[in-house]
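Standup notes
- DV: blocked on the single-chain target, sequence here:
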Amino acid sequence: MPDSRPPQSTVRSRPSSALRNVLIGVAVALALAAWGIFSRIEARAELVRQAAAAAIPTVGVVSPSHGKPSEELSLPGTVQAYYEAPIYARTSGYLKRWLVDIGTRVKSGELIAEIDTPEVDQQLNQARADLATAQANEALSATTNERWKGLLASDSVSRQDADDKAGDYAAKKALTASALANVRRLQELESFKRVLAPFDGVVTVRNTDIGALINAGAGGTPGSELFRVADTHKLRIYVQVPQPYAGAMRPGLAAELEVADHPGRRFHSQVARTADAIDPTTRTLLTQLEFDNAGGELYPGAFSEVHFKIPTRDDTVRLPANALLFRSAGLQVAVVGDDGHVKLHDVVMGRDFGTEVEILSGIAESDRVVLNPPDSLGDGQQVRVAAAPAAPQAAGAPVQAKP
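- DV (later): unblocked, structure below
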């Protein structure tokens, strides 16, 4: 009977194949486990790197710049006549006539109105009569005094009586001087019924008419002036200059005027003088300019815009206002170094131009200053500098195709 058992080599090969399969499975499992662990470690490291990179803030930077050789300062100004005087009445009465109206050119001493003063005329007549009486009494007293002096020389009268006559003459003489002074006062008062122009100019106001009641001594009362005369051959322009620019206001500094009635035109002027003192209420310096108005182009009382050409300092730079840090340590800016780390610099600010500020010290023109620095930005912190945006292409410029 033949043997049905498999050959011994076949039996031995089966366990070896199973073991090999198990070892391969274990190796694959270990490889998969190692690959999973490694990929997780790599992913975690990448996540840490990304988190660290995301934690570095990205900032924009700007370099300080020098301003123009001179800057224009525009301020409101008030135009006034070189001389301007309200004309008031110095005597009472009724207006007899007026000879000039607004816009009339007058000369110094020219008659511009007359006032009817009957009361003053009668007072002057009375004063003249009193003067004549005083002069007559003085003449009589002088004659009597001379006679009594002669009688005293011959011992015909007592010295006491002669002294009485001498004293009476001195009193009469003083009364005559008093009466004469009163006559001259009334003459001067009566002369004021002729209203005269005080200087060459133009009449800008007339507040009276024929028959109007004129009261002497009404000066200062609103509307009580008879006329107003202004000398407009030269004009004064007054400007309130803020304190930061007060040091630049020097006599001879050039300026230009703009007025609404001459749009697009500028009139050349210059600083004549300043108040040399800051107004404690407005913290401004009163500055006076002068303008030759021989052509009558500008009017007194007009509002003007005054443009000053102020020279700038060469040792200062300018920064955008949004680059400043206001902290307890003082005014600072953040400067990015070559290594990408921030260094906080203390700066001294000069004038404020609105969108820009003047920096007197603390930074150099080659520094890279952070724009809009975050409040959390600290000294030594690493930052990433944002790339500058590409300049926009001009309209109509040819576009170069990329290969």
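- Follow-up: The longest strand covers residues 70-87.
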